[in-house]
Amino acid sequence: MRALFWLLDTAISLYVWALIIAAVMSLLLAFNVLDSRNRLVWTISDFFYRVTEPALRPIRRFLPDLGGVDLSPLVLILLLQALRILLGEIYVGMLSNGIGF
């Protein structure tokens, strides 16, 4: 049981980092700091776009248009952190009831 909670927590942490990297790459591409014609840059940005976009698209539908400012990564990171806290509380509750191992 401990391994399952660890795996879920690690997967959520990695996804949060993927969201951060995707947002930073998006900004760097928008301000022409990175050249999207470079094959390596394009491949990396395409990977992070494909990994994060399915989770961000439904959030974007509910957020108001802020004129080019995309807050959906921030909203998703906050939701994922809340999920991590909830999983931690469930795990501690299971340990206190003797179900943990």
Automatic annotation (TrEMBL):
<dbReference type="InterPro" id="IPR003425">
    <property type="entry name" value="CCB3/YggT"/>
</dbReference>
<protein>
    <submittedName>
        <fullName>YggT family protein</fullName>
    </submittedName>
</protein>
<keyword id="KW-0812">Transmembrane</keyword>
<keyword id="KW-1133">Transmembrane helix</keyword>
<dbReference type="GO" id="GO:0016020">
    <property type="term" value="C:membrane"/>
</dbReference>
<dbReference type="Pfam" id="PF02325">
    <property type="entry name" value="CCB3_YggT"/>
</dbReference>
<feature type="transmembrane region" description="Helical">
    <location>
        <begin position="12"/>
        <end position="34"/>
    </location>
</feature>
<feature type="transmembrane region" description="Helical">
    <location>
        <begin position="66"/>
        <end position="87"/>
    </location>
</feature>
<keyword id="KW-0472">Membrane</keyword>
